[in-house]
Description:
Layout (H helix, E strand, L loop, with lengths): L3 H11 L4 H22 L8 H24 L7 H27 L5 H30 L5 H23 L13
Amino acid sequence: xxxxxxxxxxxxxxxxxxxxxxxxxxxxxxxxxxxxxxxxxxxxxxxxxxxxxxxxxxxxxxxxxxxxxxxxxxxxxxxxxxxxxxxxxxxxxxxxxxxxxxxxxxxxxxxxxxxxxxxxxxxxxxxxxxxxxxxxxxxxxxxxxxxxxxxxxxxxxxxxxxxxxxxxxxxxxxxxxxxxxx
Length: 182
């Protein structure tokens, strides 16, 4: 969410993209999120939940890294952000839905309500923290007037956060997909 918060501003301020077109880029990312959510729920997708979470976090990291490269290299056409953001959205759809199911699967019946509430709380708290971190980086670098550096570093920092999520997701342990035969 920290990276997404600055994509629209990057497109408008750095690339002079009209708001309608910049908003369309984010909409494409939402379609990726929808596709990821749909995909992770398909019975024919026989992948464990823990692997779906890792795959989703990896997709978010790749999407953010690509946006970072696009921000650093203004010669790359802005519409490549849409493809990058589809990957990020796809990853969010895979990881967020699968994380909720993993929490429920790994929780004792008496703890499911508490753990689901904790997941929602930390989801909101994490979003706020990393949007704040990205905003602080932006505020520190923006006065330099080097927009490629400013937006590139913001997106790179959020790509690092996504990489940390990939590493953390490896600690989940085996969570069978209700459809998987692993």
